[in-house]
Structure formats: C-alpha cells, structure tokens
Amino acid sequence: xxxxxxxxxxxxxxxxxxxxxxxxxxxxxxxxxxxxxxxxxxxxxxxxxxxxxxxxxxxxxxxxxxxxxxxxxxxxxxxxxxxxxxxxxxxxxxxxxxxxxxxxxxxxxxxxxxxxxxxxxxxxxxxxxxxxxxxxxxxxxxxxxxxxxxxxxxxxxxxxxxxxxxxxxxxxxxxxxxxxxxxxxxxxxxxxxxxxxxxxxxxxxxxxxxxxxxxxxxxxxxxxxxxxxxxxxxxxxxxxxxxxxxxxxxxxxxxxxxxxxxxxxxxxxxxxxxxxxxxxxxxxxxxxxxxxxxxxxxxxxxxxxxxxxxxxxxxxxxxxxxxxxxxxxxxxxxxxxxxxxxxxxxxxxxxxxxxxxxxxxxxxxxxxxxxxxxxxxxxxxxxxxxxxxxxxxxxxxxxxxxxxxxxx
Length: 408
Prior knowledge:
Elements: E1 2-7, H1 11-23, E2 29-35, E3 39-41, E4 60-62, H2 63-66, E5 71-75, E6 78-82, E7 87-90, E8 95-96, E9 99-102, E10 106-108, H3 116-122, H4 132-144, E11 149-153, H5 164-179, E12 186-190, H6 202-213, E13 216-218, E14 223-227, E15 232-235, E16 240-242, E17 245-248, E18 252-254, H7 256-259, E19 306-308, H8 321-339, E20 352-359, E21 362-368, E22 379-380, H9 381-399
Parallel strand pairs: 1-2, 1-9, 2-5, 9-19, 11-12, 11-17, 12-13
Antiparallel strand pairs: 3-4, 6-7, 7-8, 10-18, 14-15, 15-16, 20-21, 21-22
GO molecular function, one term: FAD binding
Protein name: Sulfide:quinone oxidoreductase
InterPro entries: FAD/NAD-bd_sf (IPR036188), FAD/NAD-binding_dom (IPR023753), FCSD_central (IPR049386), Sulphide_quinone_reductase (IPR015904)
C-alpha cells in the first residue's frame, strides 16, 4: 500500500487529493491531507466582499465536504518535514509517507510592517483585505466612506494573485464614481516595481484604463511603516502618502514548517525582507521560501518522491488558483507514473489566468503561460459574468472535486 501525504487543504491540495483518489484504487494507495484548518475559503472573493458583489457566508466550505470518500483528513499543524525519514512532523501526530505533495501556500504576515496590524486592529481605516476578516469588515467602511484618498499598497514579497491590488483599486474608483464622491477623491496604488501589471498586452490595457479614469500609480514604493495615528504610509526612501482609507496587501512568505524546518526549499531565492526587524533591509535576510521543483514536472529537484504546487513552489508562474488548477493534474499524473515506474509525461506550461475586474459589470481576462499571452485584452460584461457568476460554482463543484477537462 502506497502512502501519499498532502500538506495543505487549499485549492491545489484539495484538487490533487481528489484527482488521485479517483485514479487510484483504495487498496493501492492511502491518501492523507494535512491542514490545521477544517475550513476552506474561496479566496478569489476577498476583493469583491467589500463592495457586496459576493456574500461572505457563501465563501467557505468544511474541508471534509470537499474531499472524496477514502481520503483521510488529518487536522493538525505541520511543524516540519524530514524527507530522508519520509515523515511530516506535526504538532500532534506525525504522518509517514511514501510520496509527499507540498501545497502549503503563502502565509500572510502584516506584523512584519510596523503599524500595519495596529492600524487594522485599532482603527476603522486600515483593511489588509487578503485576510477574510479584513475583507468582510471593509464592507461597512466602504458604505460609510464619504470621499478622500483611498490607498492600496503592494509589498516587496511575492504575493498570490498579483492582479488583486489592481482590482481593488479599480473597483473602489468605480464605487466612488457611482456614489458621487469621485470628484474630490483620489485612488492611489503603489508597488515596489516599475509596472502596474507585468504582462503585455494587459499592462498597456491597464495603463490605458487607469489614465482614462485618473487612477494614480506610484512605482518603486516599498512600504516601511504605517503611521496609523496620522494616517500616513512611509516608504523605505522616506516618501509619504496620506490616506483616508487604506487597503494594504500583507507581506507573504512560505510556511516556516517548510522554509525553515525542512530541506525542501534549499536552492531557492530568499526574499529581500527582514522579518525579524520588520523593515525592508535591501539584503537577503529571510531563508529561501519556495519548494524547489522542476517547473514542468513539478517534481522536487532532489527528492524524487516529493512534488509541490500552488503558491509554495519555485516555478516562475503566477500564484493563483487558476495556476494550481493546471498544476494539480500534472502532479497527479506524474506521481502515478513514478509509482508505476513509467516516464513522467505530465507537463505544466506555466498557465495562469487573472480576471481583472475593471468596474462593476466589466472585466478583462488575462491569460498567459511561461512564454506568451494567450488572450486578447478585451474589456467586456461577459468576462465579469464569468468571474463573478460562473467561476465560483465551477470552483466548488468541479475544480475542487478534481474534475477538469483540460489535458495535461
């Protein structure tokens, strides 16, 4: 009996577990999913919740309801991995494995920016909306907002769904226009890099929309401190931006259990952020964050019986559920081939999709892989309907259940 352990019950973990359970008979493999949370959240809804375009109560499911019969859900906190002994170390009971799939995601750490957590907890102006509670709390604040400067910032760390800050900025500008408070207000988004969006032709399309709607983009702005008492965000260069409402993206890192308590991330690139000091240092201070895999097979570069996908792997792709959706069948196919001593023919090409919601009722779908853009930068109502009305049901009822007609 082959023992398969999967760290993480998020999008990639649930999809991969269900694909494997469907393809492997129960007398051939035991499949265990490990996660400290027993609730799965639909994270693509978070930037929509503040505007009541989706309802909070519909964005979560019990993990047990997502997993097929015959999959063991081990609710526990992973503390480390010993790939030589083939053990997932947990706060409670350890899990031994023959094959390991790491889908540990990103950890949100607003506390690494001085003042960000305090601003969230102590004021009604700071909402790091990548957190479910902040996204839901922001709904009342948006309803009561009567104008001023709305600020979105992006951290120096890699983030999941790099399009979400753009969507938050555009939807807020649209909300201001709809409620009559736009004329005396500003919408500002900052990034530590040069471009509002990194992939053409969507970059040019976003620049066109932002120029037409006077949404301000501040490049090369690295957040150093949030002065929530004076409603000011300061950069590492000493620049300041005042705000009336602030929607920061929290810094994001790999899980310590993988990045610090396993050898699976050795060879990866550290991020240039000093967690201990809580400030941008400019020098690599943090240990490597990402599980080092072949970007096409998603097999670990040293341990043949370890695979990884989703936000935690080292493949140079966008960290989105759409990417995990394409990676999950590749991992399942290659793991089964390896089990059976056959060549691994599953091939991930870097596919990711990002619906860029530009205003209520309109969106641009950005699709791309490692090499090319795959869709035209068309702003349409159909794209909005796809993202807001179609994809959630598809996510819960097909993708999370391990069904996807796309070949790998």
